[in-house]
Amino acid sequence: MRLKKLAVVVFSLSSLFATSVFSQEESATARQIIDKFQTDLITVMKDGKKLGYTGRYEKLDVAVSNSHDLPKIARIVVGKEWEKLTEEQQKKLTDLFSRLSIASYAHNFKEFDGEAFAIDSEEETKLGGVVIHSHLDLPDDKPVKFDYMLKEKGASWRIINIIANGVSDLALKRSEYTAILQRDGFDALIAKINEKIDLYAKQ
Amino acid sequence: MKSKAVTTLICSVIFASNVAAQTTSNDPYENFNRQMYDFNNSVDTYVAAPLSNGYKFIAPQFVQTGVFNFFTNLKSFNVVLNDVLQAKFSQSAADFGRLTLNSTAGLGGFFDVAKHVGLEQNDEDFDQTLAVWGIPQGSYLVLPFSGPSTVRGVPASAFDAAANPASYASIPAYYISAPVQFMSGLNARANAEGALKFINEAAMDKYVFTRESFLQWRKNLENDGKISASLDDDFMAEEKSSNLKWRDDYQQFQIAAQSFGSVAQKFDLAAQNYEQANSKIAQLKPLKVKR
């Protein structure tokens, strides 16, 4: 039972990174960013089979880049270890982390079974961020809660973290990445990321 | 005698949790836990997964769903009990209605008819009750065969097992309850297939991924799904200084104390309501006699 619930949460986490072509709307609000992102994600899911992995990846590349602050997320997930990396390593990590994020979306959101996103409410955080509360209705299961944490970037907003049924993607990744970096080092982390990207592309 | 046992249990949990809290991580027993995690994976690969696959092959989907509903319904006893222990009285009434409906119209729980009349399943257990009473979660633990838990979760699970009717499923106890429990385990493993597949695909470090998912999921249940927006801002800051850490611990202690006080107040309020209701009934009795 616990593992089944964990499955729903973990499945939800995979929804994290996707969609949205918002480059032309530089001054979009946080709510608009999420709305566009979720709409684009559903569109890609509907065309999932036709697009194939490569097609989904291409569409989601733009969508994710325009809704997420991937460089900042990449920096946060390695915590204090970021300062110990060389500039070249930081660049490599940011690039691969972005590719992995998009690849995981392209892999996990490949078909549509009647799922639907809905935004419930929004609130401001103490340090000037915004949290958008939303949920994903599933055809044969309980809805999954999605809470998007956004920070202002330029004139627009970008996703920093997604909390699916209470499980924070950022916290999860931060624990994993720092553990691997401290235990096995930078090269091992990069190898793991590459391995995951290849795995997603093959399936 | 029983209250003494409960007090001892709670004190031991608090002590164990405090000991664990003195370490910097929520996983001070990582070496042991990783060994148990590997052991459980081996058991799963060579025993649980083959049995589960056999079960899925033999049992049609509606039987699997029915078995799942049956055990979920039995667990509703625990849910109602823990609703009350957490002073969630209106929720306990809804859960009791759900239990009654599924046990009768749902043919002993095999069909989840309550869902179709809007009575959704709530998820409450004794671990959450202990959290509401202000007892810290304690360190992460991986137990052989049963998997992820915490210092607080271990005695809580024992309490839940003792309170679950599935533990006493038969009068000729062993010969019926053992297969029933075995089937419950098979069904749980079959339902976990998707989660295990996802972990295999997504996790960079499966042990850390499982640990963090589990701890966050438990924390979310404790908070009844409410998240605090301010908590997320913590990611924007780097490691907190030791002073800030002490301040956080103190704040957590205060929150726990307030939480416990709040539950006590609710019980007190409920008792007052019963008392008032009793006195009103007592006032009505003489009128009936006069008639």
How would the blueprint of this fold be written?
The complex is a heterodimer of chains A (203) and B (291).
Chain A: H1 2-14, H2 30-46, H3 48-65, H4 70-77, H5 87-108, E1 116-124, E2 130-137, E3 144-153, E4 156-164, E5 167-168, H6 169-184, H7 186-202
Antiparallel strand pairs in A: 1-2, 2-3, 3-4, 4-5
Helix pairs in contact in A: 2-3, 3-5, 4-5, 5-7, 6-7
Chain B: H1 2-21, H2 30-58, H3 61-85, H4 89-104, H5 113-116, H6 126-132, E1 140-143, E2 147-150, H7 153-163, H8 173-191, H9 193-202, H10 206-222, H11 229-232, H12 242-290
Antiparallel strand pairs in B: 1-2
What features would you describe in this structure?
The complex is a heterodimer of chains A (203) and B (291). Chain A is an alpha+beta fold. Chain A has a single domain (2-202), classed as Tgt2/MlaC (Nuclear Transport Factor 2, Chain: A), CATH 3.10.450. Chain A has helices at residues 2-14, 30-46, 48-65, 70-77, 87-108, 169-184, 186-202, and strands at residues 116-124, 130-137, 144-153, 156-164, 167-168. Chain A has a five-stranded antiparallel sheet. In chain B, strands 1-2 form a two-stranded antiparallel ribbon. The model of chain B is unreliable at 1-24 and 238-250 (pLDDT under 50). Chains A and B meet through helix 1, strand 3, strand 4, strand 5 and helix 6 of A and helix 3, helix 9, helix 10 and helix 11 of B.
